[in-house]
Design goal:
Structural class: mainly beta
Strand order of the largest sheet: 16-15-20-21-23-22-24-19
Order of helices and strands: HHEEEHHEEEHEEEEEEEEEEEEEHEEEEE
Largest sheet: 8 strands, mixed
Shape: extended
Radius of gyration: 34 Å
Length: 543
């Protein structure tokens, strides 16, 4: 019938009912019955907690991204409100792809259905439905053989991804941290490839210090780490070093870290209490953890102390690589080196950056002899925010050849490997290609002698580097960001010297940092002008 056809077309045009309620999904809700910082969808967070948030770590929550149309939960913060408030919106999101799923009408694929257990009553029916090689004539053998040949998830390979909690045999690797207050919470998981450093307050009692788990080394190393998620391969956490701290703050590194030092009460003091833990995880390029180590700081607690401060840190390093030191997080810190590197050769587009030997931008380092030829290879790192100048003297004789001399001076000024890019932030990673600023190289020529001869040549005499940076982010806590770097080589014309004559030329290298931030100034043009005449004795007795 016509009405039936029209109804079918109307059902096809209408969006299907959502299977997943995105308003109840929250991928950043990691702590049980506790509010996760900056997790705007966490149902455990109150309005007071939201007022302390700085941003929403997960601003949009959706279901299946392959659906043609679905609901999306959007979270944001109203920072203009006093106190700041969380804003929640439920919007319709349309998938622009022509290859999308209109309706998930296969209901059985949405649930995990428990298989029916064969019994003497239903065996014949199951045999007719799942006949063939699936079942064997010997009931005692087919169950074991099939489990051995086709174990669950046998063809699926798991690997750690960025931010995924590092799993252990009992739960996950704990990195205690303050959640809302400054008190330690042991429910904070360590995320893979997420370098963290936390400090928190722990309440203690000297009489019961040997029974407080968080003060014992075993609490941090007794659970083995899973090499990959959902696997049986374990990686034990080894003790890398033990440092003992006295009551006055003096630290001593123990020669042996093989013996566990457990907390105990001695002469009214709680000794061997854990004051700090530093985890170091080594992984492969495929996301598999192959080594885990922990460095401890143990100390003594007096009986008058009701609480102590503990510090925790975790870092990740890929095998067969050296960790790259950072110069800020995220913005540069004044006095730390400016990070630099190169783009890989053979790539038609920026695919990543390789750091130079020291991962730093360097200039010529002055020496006591002030001899340019002797100073070749001596470099000093460019420190962010520090204007620097260095130089040397070059003694030129008539026997020197022009081209080798020019190349030598260029190597003295720029070094053997002058970088092509500079990191815009202090923590810019090599894979984040948009966080790297190309170095613009300019050449300026100066004419020392107006009537130059054919025997004259051009030699570089100075390198000037200008680093332009700006304040990025919030006005309360601005971050230093490099936006432009220009390296200018100045050359001069040198005339051929007569025999047995010498000339001394100064060679200089300099770095200048320029703040190009736009200050938040009021618009004075909007102020009305006042045109009045003051009395003649207004400033009496001053002129």
């Amino acid at each position: 019938p016509a009405d039936t056809s029209d109804a079918a077309q109307a059902r096809a045009r209408s969006a299907p009912a959502p299977v997943t309620d995105v308003a109840k999904l929250c991928v950043c809700d990691l702590l049980v019955a506790q509010c996760d910082v900056n997790c705007c969808c966490d149902p455990d967070c109150s309005a007071e907690d939201f007022s302390l948030f700085t941003t929403c770590s997960v601003p949009v929550v959706t279901g299946d991204s392959q659906l043609c149309r679905q609901k999306a939960a959007v979270y944001s913060l109203d920072v203009e409100a006093n106190p700041p408030e969380r804003i929640f919106k439920l919007i319709d999101q349309v998938n622009p792809s022509i290859f999308c799923i209109h309706a998930t009408n296969y209901k059985q694929a949405l649930y995990l259905k428990s298989p029916e257990i064969p019994t003497p009553e239903n065996f014949d029916r199951l045999l007719d439905k799942f006949g063939g090689a699936t079942f064997s004539a010997q009931p005692d053998s087919w169950n074991l053989d099939m489990d051995a040949q086709n174990p669950p998830d046998a063809n699926e390979t798991y690997r750690y991804e960025y931010g995924v909690p590092v799993q252990t045999e009992d739960a996950f690797l704990r990195l205690p941290s303050p959640v809302v207050s400054s008190w330690c919470s042991d429910a904070n998981p360590a995320g893979f490839l997420v370098n963290q450093a936390t400090k928190c307050i722990r309440s203690v009692s000297v009489e019961k210090c040997d029974s407080i788990r968080a003060l014992s080394m075993l609490f941090y190393i007794n659970s083995s780490i899973l090499a990959v998620p959902k696997s049986s391969q374990m990686v034990n956490i080894t003790v890398q070093s033990i440092v003992v701290q006295s009551l006055n703050g003096m630290r001593t590194l123990l020669n042996s870290s093989d013996v566990l030092r457990l907390p105990m009460v001695l002469d009214g003091l709680c000794i061997n209490a854990v004051l700090g833990v530093n985890y170091h995880i080594t992984h492969t390029d495929t996301g598999e953890i192959i080594e885990a180590a922990a460095a401890f700081v143990l100390g003594a607690i007096s009986k008058e102390a009701l609480s102590i401060e503990q510090s925790f840190e975790i870092s990740f390093t890929q095998e067969n690589t050296q960790p790259v030191p950072l110069s800020g997080n995220p913005g540069y810190v004044v006095g730390l080196p400016v990070r630099a590197g190169f783009r890989p050769q053979g790539y038609p587009f920026p695919a990543g950056f390789f750091s130079n030997k020291h991962s730093q931008l360097t200039i010529l380092q002055s020496t006591s002899t002030q001899d340019c030829l002797a100073a070749q290879g001596a470099r000093a790192p460019v420190l962010f925010g520090y204007n620097m100048i260095s130089g040397c003297k070059l003694r030129i004789t008539a026997a020197m050849k022009c081209q080798p001399l020019a190349q030598t001076l260029l190597d003295v000024l720029k070094g053997q490997s002058f970088p092509e890019y500079v990191a815009s932030f202090g923590n810019s990673q090599a894979q984040d290609v948009l966080d790297w600023v190309p170095i613009t190289q300019l050449h300026i020529s100066e004419q020392m002698i107006s009537n130059t001869l054919q025997s004259s040549c051009q030699i570089p005499v100075s390198l000037g580097i200008e680093v332009k940076w700006t304040k990025y982010g919030s006005l309360v806590n601005p971050q230093a960001r490099i936006v432009n770097v220009t390296a200018t080589i100045t050359t001069t014309t040198l005339k051929q010297l007569p025999p047995r004559r010498e000339r001394i030329i100064p060679i200089t290298s300099s770095v200048v940092f320029t703040d190009i931030s736009s200050p938040a100034e009021p618009s004075y043009k909007a102020w009305p002008s006042i045109n009045i005449k003051l009395p003649f004795d207004f400033f009496y007795p001053f002129v």
